[in-house]
Design brief:
By secondary structure, the chain is mostly helical. The chain has helices at 17-52, 60-64, 67-90, 94-120, 122-139, 145-158, 218-221, 230-240, 242-279. Helix 4 packs antiparallel against helix 9 (242-279). The longest helix has 38 residues, at 242-279. Keywords: Cell junction, Cell membrane, Cytoplasm, Disulfide bond, Glycoprotein, Membrane, Transmembrane, Transmembrane helix.
Length: 280
């Protein structure tokens, strides 16, 4: 029996259309999402600039704690990386695909490092967060409206007040709530710290509910406001929902590894196709 010779037509390609367009579709969605983040960040920054006439950037804390800047930067990263994935898959460009898969690998390793550090050294992570951000966040409470809304949301949702182990006394570091302040809010805390911040008769927020609590003992203040810091409360909440977070983290990790695998597969298929063209 004569040997069988496999012959391919000139239209045959080693590049899988399914892999190619799956990578393109996935990255196109994230490309749109990155553009949305950039748009929201610019809108937020422009609105803040119109209200205050200034966006303060003196230290890296001003960047990390400015929500509009964080949105623009994170959106820019997502936009650029996903654009490289889109274009690399669509144009079968191995350089863009290598850059894309490398970026995903770096993101994956950073996420794993943060997750491992948080799981093995939770109290150390708490201490680092408290020492690094508490004073700055408390100080910026009234200067940055976006940050103020975020802090109020966290304090109301998690029934906490302040950030560190000092709890509600953290607010003594804010110029408006410091006991030496000439403001009527001196020795007070934001209304979002109050156990009952809503006036029953009017249904409106009672912004004066936390006035003067810093001059009271913890037992007295605890009748009006939440006294525990938010970092510890959020850590305990995360531990209680550990399986949920683990499931979400594993799902995201699986998706990232799958996309990296598809990108490397497409890259090898393109190189194989080019070698076939070269040898033919």
């Amino acid at each position: 029996m004569p040997p069988v010779h496999h012959r391919y037509s000139n239209n045959y390609t080693y590049v899988s259309s399914c892999t190619k367009y799956l990578i393109f579709l996935f990255n196109f969605i994230f490309w749109l999402f990155g553009g949305l983040l950039i748009g929201i960040g610019f809108y937020s920054g422009f609105d803040k600039f119109q209200n205050t006439g200034l966006i303060k950037i003196d230290t890296y804390y001003d960047i990390l704690l400015n929500i509009s800047i964080v949105l623009v930067l994170s959106g820019g990263v997502v936009f650029i990386v996903s654009f490289c994935g889109c274009l690399g898959a669509l144009r079968e460009n191995t350089c863009l695909l290598k850059f894309y898969s490398l970026c995903l690998l770096v993101f994956f390793l950073c996420e794993m490092a943060i997750a491992i550090m948080g799981f093995i050294f939770p109290h150390t992570m708490n201490q680092v967060l408290e020492e690094s951000f508490t004073d700055r966040i408390i100080t910026l409470y009234r200067e940055d409206s976006d940050l103020q809304n975020f802090i109020d949301f966290v304090q109301q949702e998690f029934n906490c007040c302040g950030l560190s182990s000092g709890g509600f006394l953290d607010w003594s570091k804010n110029e408006y709530f410091n006991c030496s302040s000439p403001s009527v809010e001196r020795c007070g805390v934001p209304y979002s710290c109050c156990i009952n911040s809503t006036d029953i008769s009017s249904g409106l927020f009672n912004i004066m509910c936390g006035y003067g609590v810093q001059s009271q003992s913890v037992s007295q203040a605890s009748k009006k406001v939440w006294t525990s810091g938010c970092i510890e409360i959020v850590r305990v909440w995360a531990e209680r929902n550990l399986y949920l977070f683990a499931g979400v983290a594993l799902s995201c990790s699986f998706v990232q590894l799958l996309i990296i695998y598809l990108a490397k597969t497409l890259e090898s298929q393109i190189e194989l196709q080019r070698s076939r063209w070269t040898n033919s």
